Amino acid sequence: MREYPFVVLQVVGYKNSGKTSVITSLIQALQREGLKVGTLKHHGHGGEPDKLNGTDSSQHFNAGAVVSGVEGDGVFQWNVRQESWSLDVLLNLYRPLGLDIVLVEGFKSEPYPKWVLLRDDNDLKMVKELKNVQGIVSGGSISHETVPCIPRDKEEAYIRMIKNQIKGELDGK
């Protein structure tokens, strides 16, 4: 059984690997399936996150996320300040919102199912460092012995694969 009343799926990768674009496409695809989607972004670049206007989290919200938040350097934007935030504490804040899924951008070291975005072969080392990698979306022609790899320009293919994974979890499979 899941720990939360929603599916948690992480999208991780180095800066400028396309995480926000992939999440935005996923939000739209999942919303078309009638699912309520929330997002949570880890601001991993140090310092407090930017304000919501014009940021990645505002793009998530504008794409149709029911709720969108961002965490960085101890600030979670719902304008709540605390010394620091763990992913579990943040996900617990999403519990009462009636969501089907929360897409988490970042928090690489957490154990939830994740898709990794790689810019090229040099980023492949990240896959070895992470737990619970379900798939790879890459900017190059990357292959992996145990994890499906889909080129970034094959959006329909990786969106379909991720949607099927999420539907399987929602159905309890």
TrEMBL record:
Annotated ranges, domain Molybdopterin-guanine dinucleotide biosynthesis protein B (MobB): 8-138
GO MF annotations in UniProt: GTP binding
Entries under InterPro entries matching the protein: MGD_biosynthesis_adapter, MobB_dom, P-loop_NTPase
GO terms of biological process kind: Mo-molybdopterin cofactor biosynthetic process
Pfam families in the cross-refs: MobB
Name the UniProt record assigns to this protein: Molybdopterin-guanine dinucleotide biosynthesis protein B
Organism from which the protein derives: Pontibacillus marinus BH030004 = DSM 16465
